[in-house]
Design goal:
The protein is mainly beta and about 425 residues long. Among the domains are: about 140 residues, 7 Propeller (Methylamine Dehydrogenase, Chain H); about 150 residues, 7 Propeller (Methylamine Dehydrogenase, Chain H). The chain contains three helices and 25 strands. GO terms for molecular function: structural molecule activity.
Amino acid sequence: MIQTGLIQNAHDDLVTDVSYDFYGLRFATCSIDQKIKTWQLDETNGTWSVEDEWKAHDATITKLCWAHPEFGTILASASFDRTVKIWEQTSFTKTADIQPAAPSGSQATGGSSSRWSERAVLVDARGTVRAVEFTPHHFGLKLATISSDNHLRIYECLEQSSLATWQLSEEVDVTSLPSASLPSSHSVTFSTPTQTGATLDGASASLVAQALQQSQAPLQGRGGLGNREADGGWCISWCKERYWGEVIAAGCGISGTIKVIQISPSRRPTTLLTLDPSPSGKPAVEGSSLVGVAAPESDAPVPYAVTSVAWAPSCGRSYHLIATGSRDGHVRIWRVKLAEETDMDDEGVGLKWTGTIVADFDNHKMAVGRVEWNITGTVLSSAGNDGRVRLWKATMGNVWRPAGSIGVEQAEDSVDLDASMEENAVME
């Protein structure tokens, strides 16, 4: 059963991101109001209360990410002010008369026994920073960022005791990143989507069509290049498995594709695979094409930017699942696996990867802002501009189906469970 709760007036403006910690008992929120808030779950009654809040940036905060708890209570935030900041929660002993003052850029709420301190500011981005994510903990205290300058940057903390020194270990323009040397390394095949959304009818269909036409008009008016900030999408997600090394999925701009990139300490980052949902399997935007792909024709279809990507935990599967959400309203699930092994070195270079679309849903009918997997990689959630959070789950035959949805402001007793969820529960 879906359990829901509603937090009224969480921020003074639109909430831009929500991020849970490792244990799921706390989460952090950020907003256009330039503040970060952390929330604590009261397990006795299931309610959430504000633990701390502070003004963190000088512009809209776009993304938050918690580090693994083995490194401490650490939070990273990305912003339109072109910076990434590293925050650490520290505790202090309260006395009757004296309490330590909160550091610059951070302020603890009254009566709190903790505070968040700004430990580092990363200022290398030449555009707004759109996503930040720590690497899986077995690779150490590292994080990746991607910004509207289309650059993927990897940072490594050199002083974990103070969190003050972060080294920029990799910086690469994703759009110009060459493909792997093996031609088949970026092969993509397609299977018939296992589930498609029902079509709208009547006035609703006309309104949606009109909205899509209006959203596509500025793209066509600029020869398919669009407005970088308004029409693009920038997102990243790390592969969770240690065996494959440091592999990250990244999307940028309006190309509509995701590149799976190998990060290696001994060579430049390499594209292992490009996930492209277009019918031809080729990017339709000049400047984002693969090596050896011809420039698009003048009447080439305009792609929709990928706004979110999520790499699922494998949990023993022989393949990987990567989910994407796009501005065209589609939620897609890709099955990524090795086609065959060639002469592979110790860092995994030389492997041939393939990707297949195994599910394609358009139930949101509007831009999808976020996709996220559960801890076992068996249930996918998506949030869209239609104001709904939707769940997707595979049946025993690996056929993906809707598993329920809820409006962001509806009460718990009005949760709309899809009938297929009940059918799946019976089958399983």
